[in-house]
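Format notes (please read before filing issues)

Several people have asked whether sequences and structure tokens are stored in separate files. They are not. Every record keeps both together, in the order shown below: the sequence lines, then the token lines. Line labels are part of the format and must not be stripped during preprocessing.
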Amino acid sequence: METHAAPLCIPPEHPALAGHFPGNPVVPAVVVLERVAAACKAWRRTVVAALDAKFVRPLRPGEAATIMLQAEGARVRFEVTGADGKLLARGVFASRQASMRPVVARS
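Then the structure lines:
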């Protein structure tokens, strides 16, 4: 079973936070999902679809969190946990492994 970890922290200046929610800012779920998908891509897996996502606790702007990915065939399970180790979000993406292209030296 392959696993991968990536840090997550959305700065308070992020454009998606404007008006979300004044006086009680929360990182929008779509921003969290975009960052999880980017972590998958960095891990050489292309996200095809979100199959399931549950948001347990809000992620606050500037809050340090960790994305944990676990490959299960054509699926990637994810968990996002806060610095305190408590679950913020979890879900499953359908994915495919990015192909490795050989590097060819040209002279």
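For reference, the curators noted about this record: The CA atoms of residues 8 and 65 lie 5 Å apart. The two ends are 40 Å apart (CA to CA).
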